[in-house]
Design goal:
Elements lengths: L3 H66 L1 H5 L8 E2 L9 E10 L2 E10 L2 E12 L2 E10 L3
Antiparallel strand pairs: 1-2, 2-3, 3-4, 4-5
């Protein structure tokens, strides 16, 4: 014959165990949610950084093209001159690339700035005249501010 008191104790133990497991499961789900959110932010950040690097590359290519096509205009560039804008496809909404030349003795520096929505990155290319043309002698990414 079954002992009714033992059956009641067993059921009470199972109920208490289930009640204590609810917060443990909730905490585990909360931790997983935070992990997924952090991973999503990292993925978005990596995508944005990659796009900004591509935009800086486009600016560098355009600066090299511009200095090769019109060295006298670049040599006469001053601080008051407006920056050159790099034409971008319409699919890059919220993106922009511009650059400006500055003359430093025999060297010319191109300051390139890429923007994507609220994110910004910069790059500096330094050119020196070799014969009749300019060559890139240094390139540096501008640290984030």
């Amino acid at each position: 014959m079954r002992n009714p008191s033992r059956h009641r104790n067993s059921r009470a133990f199972a109920t208490i165990t289930a009640i204590f497991l609810i917060p443990v499961v909730a905490a585990a789900l909360l931790a997983l949610t935070y992990q997924f959110q952090a991973q999503a932010r990292r993925t978005q950040s990596v995508q944005t950084e990659a796009q900004l690097r591509q935009l800086l590359h486009a600016g560098a290519v355009e600066a090299v093209r511009r200095i090769a096509a019109a060295p006298p205009a670049v040599e006469a560039a001053g601080d008051a001159d407006p920056p050159y804008a790099v034409p971008l496809p319409k699919s890059l909404k919220g993106a922009g690339v511009k650059f400006k030349f500055q003359r430093h003795g025999a060297a010319v520096t191109a300051h390139i700035e890429a923007t994507l929505n609220e994110h910004r990155r910069g790059q500096v290319l330094r050119f020196e005249k070799k014969g009749e043309r300019y060559e890139v002698v240094d390139a540096a990414i501008v640290p984030n501010e």
